[in-house]
Amino acid sequence: MADQAELVGLVTDLVGERAGGWDRAGRIPAEVIRALAAKGVLCPQVPADQGGPGLTAVAAGELTAQLGSLCGSLRSLQTAHGMAAWAVTRLGSREQREVYLPQLTSGALAGVAFSEPQAGSDLAAMTTRIRDEGGMVVVDGHKSWVTGAGYADLLLVFGRYRDGAAVVAVPTGTAGVEIAPVTDPLGCRAAGHGQVTLTGVRLPADHLFGAGQDLGMLVTSTLTYGRLSVAWGCVGILRCCLAAAVRHAQIRHQFGKPLAAHQLVARHLAELFVAEQAATRTCEHASRCWDARTPDFVPAVVVAKHVAARAATRGAATAMQVLASAGATDGHPVARAYRDAKLMEIIEGSSEISQLLLAEHARAVWS
Ligand SMILES: Cc1cc2nc3c(=O)[nH]c(=O)nc-3n(C[C@H](O)[C@H](O)[C@H](O)COP(=O)(O)OP(=O)(O)OC[C@H]3O[C@@H](n4cnc5c(N)ncnc54)[C@H](O)[C@@H]3O)c2cc1C
């Protein structure tokens, strides 16, 4: 398997300047996704003995930031696929890991399905049912906004099972699975978001993961991976915006001097730089906590996601202000970043849900 530098090079070469076109088309060429999936870019922490690159969370984070700086849609696919691989790693038996992880590191694409029409922030309201029937498992339910569903070979579907919860690995070609695209999403427009209906979907019992565990535990463990990935993606958004704003402020002249020489514009550049640095450092800290499995790695990841998502939203707006009309077209990377960034405050636990989790943690630690 390739090391981090090679994977960063692969991402940079494969994406190049093409992300704006993919965003407008609402589609990424399948061969690009397959090429990244086959090299393990989409689940960079899967260990080498399971066929993955085996990167640390810090090294994987920098790879995610590079992908996020180039293409928010591909970074979204990476987050979704990485969450699926992490759920298999965390919840699967040795036999299940040996079946699924080699697929997920050799080109197959996966997504995760938690959200439902009436269960967004409140995932405890989930109604998807998983039941046993004659040695098989049967899944019925509706899932909303599943990232990557339009490309995926496999979805990890979360639902209620017996007295607790479970996850079922559902190949998207299984009878009873219907996927309708989310039309005209605000951002990450080529990430293949789908509304998924599962009607009497029957699969062998060995497709069941984490049987009977607590729903909150199943969801939190998978979301923690996703939050760290989204946080690093936001670092990428900030780097894209910082580079574009600095470049533009140096070459564009108004009132007889470069924009950067006007102090109010210089302040925008300083704010963007501080945002990028603050997000990077909190992500590095959270990733080190993840790698060392420190007792506080879960709240450290929530802090990183919260800080980075808010910084990306504000940073992208600041960069738009510096570029003004020069960035105000659909295909411009900063315009794309501006739309993509807002979604980062909604997914993997919104900013408000992050605040609730962090307030609870603060009370536990500081009271
Ligand atoms: C681009 C995108 C990609 C997504 N990808 C996936 C995916 O791959 N898989 C998947 O399962 N889901 C996915 N989702 C769904 C996503 O997880 C939910 O949108 C998210 O959890 C928020 O739920 P909601 O949109 O229903 O908002 P709601 O839960 O209805 O919340 C609306 C607003 O109310 C606030 N709010 C809710 N409850 C509280 C509270 N107790 N206190 C304070 N404020 C509160 C929220 O923060 C938000 O601001 C995706 C969504 C988007 C937009």
Can you tell me about this structure?
The structure is a single chain. By secondary structure, the chain is an alpha+beta fold. The chain has eleven helices and ten strands. The strands form two sheets. Strands 1, 2, 3, 4, 5, 6, 7 and 8 form an eight-stranded mixed sheet that branches. A two-stranded antiparallel sheet has the order 9-10. Helix 4 packs across helix 7, helix 5 runs antiparallel to helix 7 and helix 9 crosses helix 11. The radius of gyration is 21 Å and the shape is globular. The model has no long low-confidence stretch (mean pLDDT 97). The structure holds flavin-adenine dinucleotide (FAD).
What is the overall shape? globular
Helix/strand order, N-terminal first? HHHHHHEEEEEEEEHEEHHHH
Distance between the termini: 47 Å
What's the mean pLDDT score? 97
What share of the residues lie within helices?
40-55%
Whole-number radius of gyration?
A: 21 Å
SSE class: alpha+beta
Major β-sheet profile: 8 strands, mixed
Keywords:
alpha+beta; binds flavin-adenine dinucleotide; 367 residues
Briefly characterize the structure.
Helices cover 53% and strands 17% of the residues. The chain contains 11 helices and 10 strands.
Topology:
Elements: H1 4-15, H2 19-25, H3 30-38, H4 57-70, H5 72-91, H6 94-104, E1 110-113, E2 129-133, E3 136-146, E4 154-161, E5 164-171, E6 177-181, E7 194-204, E8 208-213, H7 215-251, E9 253-254, E10 257-258, H8 263-292, H9 297-323, H10 333-344, H11 351-366
Parallel strand pairs: 1-4, 2-4
Antiparallel strand pairs: 2-3, 3-7, 4-5, 5-8, 6-7, 9-10
